[in-house]
Amino acid sequence: QVQLVESGGGLVQPGGSLRLSCAASGFTFSSYAMSWVRQAPGKGLEWLSDINNDGDKTYYADSVKGRFTISRDNAKNTVHLQMNSLEPEDPADYYCAKHAPPTSPLQYDYWGRGTHVIVSS
């Protein structure tokens, strides 16, 4: 059974940092790319970042490029999102997502439940 469990969300001051984690199980973690996606209150899903299966290729949305860093530890089946210089636009529910196999019509086939990030002074 595939499981993705996010953690690390919480309250942070503007300009502060948080490190989100996503613990994966139930599949061959090192074979799949992973992503972070967020959803602000009343808004749709916003893609943030991708990392390929072995961690040597990363991609970022313009809104977080230079501030957020995605990484993975395949030995621990974990994906991280280091978030620095958090801004008022960043509060949201943050989700990790597993990329689907190439035979699937979906980009993502599994999602975590999300972890909430609050930016407040």
Plain-language structure description:
- This protein is mainly β.
- Helix content is 0%, strand content 50%.
- It is built from no helices and eleven strands.
- It has strands at 3-7, 10-12, 18-25, 34-39, 45-51, 58-60, 68-73, 78-83, 92-99, 108-111, 115-119.
- Strands 2, 4, 5, 6, 9, 10 and 11 form a seven-stranded mixed sheet that branches. A four-stranded antiparallel sheet has the order 1-3-8-7, with no helix packed on it.
- Strand 9 (92-99) and strand 10 form a beta hairpin.
- 29% of the residues are buried.
- The model has no long low-confidence stretch (mean pLDDT 97).
Percent of residues in helices: under 10%
C-alpha termini separation: 40 Å
Biggest sheet character: 7 strands, mixed
Quaternary structure annotation:
single chain
Average pLDDT: 97
Shape: globular
Uncertain runs with pLDDT below 50, 5 residues or more? none
Rg calculated over all Cα atoms: 14 Å
The succession of helices and strands, N to C, reads EEEEEEEEEEE
The DSSP helix count reads: 0
Which percent band covers the strand fraction? over 45%
Derived from helix and strand composition plus strand pairing, the structural class reads mainly beta
Count of beta strands: 11
In short:
With 121 residues, this protein is an all-beta fold. It contains no helices and 11 strands.
How are the SSEs placed, and which strands pair?
Layout: E1 3-7, E2 10-12, E3 18-25, E4 34-39, E5 45-51, E6 58-60, E7 68-73, E8 78-83, E9 92-99, E10 108-111, E11 115-119
Parallel strand pairs: 2-11
Antiparallel strand pairs: 1-3, 3-8, 4-5, 4-9, 5-6, 7-8, 9-10, 9-11
